Amino acid sequence: MASSRSKRVEYDRFIPFRSTMDMDYARFALTTPSRPRRDGSILSPSSVAYQKLLDECILKNMTRILAFKSAPDTSASQLPQFDEPIRLQKKQQRQISKEPERVLDAPGMLDEDGLNLLDWGSKNMLAIALGDKVCLWDDANKSTKVLLEAVEGSGPITSISWSPDSTVLAVALGNSVLALVDPATGQDVNVTEDDENLTPVLSLAWRSNSILTAGRSDGTVVDYDFRKDDTSICFYNGHRRGVCSLKWSDNRRYLASGGHDKLVHIWDACMPVSHRHPRRHQWLHRISSHTSIVKALDWCPTEATYWPGGGRHDHCIKFWNTVNGSCLNSIDAGSEVCALLWDKNKSELVTSHGFPKNQLTLWNYPSMTRAAELFGHSSRVHFLAGSPLGGVVASAAADETLKFWNIFETPKPTKPELPFARFNIMRAKWKTFLVLDMKIHCWQSCTETFGGIKVATHFHGGNDCKRLRVAQRSLVELKWQHIFMEVWLQAPKPQDKM
């Protein structure tokens, strides 16, 4: 009768059994240095449990390198199930709601090409023009109010635009008058004179808090500075018909304009002007590849030289390089493109469309694949505006509704940097600079204290004095870090000793 006792092979106690040795563990045990806890602290219970589990699963509770007998049989069920293949978790795609999160009535919304009646300011205030009225939506407290109403005969309102700091709202009236309105009081801050020779303003774009660019229905584009008596300071001549879209680049150097004449112009504000016409700018690039009016314009936030333009009836979105004026890409959107908006925090853009679906389309850039399509309007979606906080996009359509969509990804809040957060780094950097650069074999020295740093300079004239002045300027530059101090490194008097 065979014995039920398992046979174990015993070997010589002076000769290790290599087939039962774990060479990986042996290498780990020999090469890993021991790191005792110098602070004398005690591991937490969770750390102890984790270390115990790690020993059981990975190290198999091994404590010796050499083996002098065969390993005991171990049931597979007793081992923790950590040998299963690790499945890579797919990145969860962002869920975009197909329904608007809020819908507001917009009675009196004009269904006309070339107007700009919606804008969202940096103070989270949305302005919309409805016929002869301008209404404000305060997204913080979810309230509305009527900001102003045009007097009889001066309407309708053709364009509105917030200043970069949202302290004033520019309002263009149908009688060619351009007004700056205080959103708190509703009173006019500045108003241009009523001139019968001027045509209505169709588009507005702020170059700065004091300079406003306006495009009129006769094709003229003018820069206005309301601080001066002669408010018209610069002219851009190139369009033959109404200018229905204007956009300044983020660096405020390039201006893109699209018009009813199917032309797109790129203007360089830094381009030299003619002596005969010192206030007249010449276009940098003229683009005539669109076959319909160009209403949708916006600059790419990640590439300062790229910008897309959407034609109304040619159903195309084109990307252009402002350096050489070349077309980088052209996408057939499948329907008329009415408005276009970039996400400032991610490489995405949203377009609004008209016939036949009247939808909003979210695109991934630069692949230009459709990420989502949102349906909800029953008529052409004329205008888009993005929240300054990110995430939400407002759309206004000819069906007299204003809808808010949670389309873009909401940026994660960042912690504000403390005023002196980088002071220690700069202090160490300038300290190293001074010690290394000013260490000269000389016979005189002086010592000054700055921000707790003792700065020793050695010099005897010549090039050393130049180095001293460089060090002095470097220390004064630290005022940029809100350290209002002055450091004077002066040569010691002849009687001073080392």
UniProtKB/TrEMBL annotation:
GO terms for cellular component: anaphase-promoting complex. GO terms for biological process: anaphase-promoting complex-dependent catabolic process; cell division; positive regulation of anaphase-promoting complex-dependent catabolic process. GO terms for molecular function: anaphase-promoting complex binding; ubiquitin ligase activator activity. WD repeats lie at residues 236-268, 374-407. Gene3D superfamilies: YVTN repeat-like/Quinoprotein amine dehydrogenase. InterPro entries: Cdc20/Fizzy (IPR033010), WD40/YVTN_repeat-like_dom_sf (IPR015943), WD40_CDC20-Fz (IPR056150), WD40_repeat_CS (IPR019775), WD40_repeat_dom_sf (IPR036322), WD40_rpt (IPR001680). The keyword Cell cycle applies. Component of the anaphase promoting complex/cyclosome (APC/C), a cell cycle-regulated E3 ubiquitin-protein ligase complex that controls progression through mitosis and the G1 phase of the cell cycle. This is Anaphase-promoting complex subunit. It comes from Musa troglodytarum.
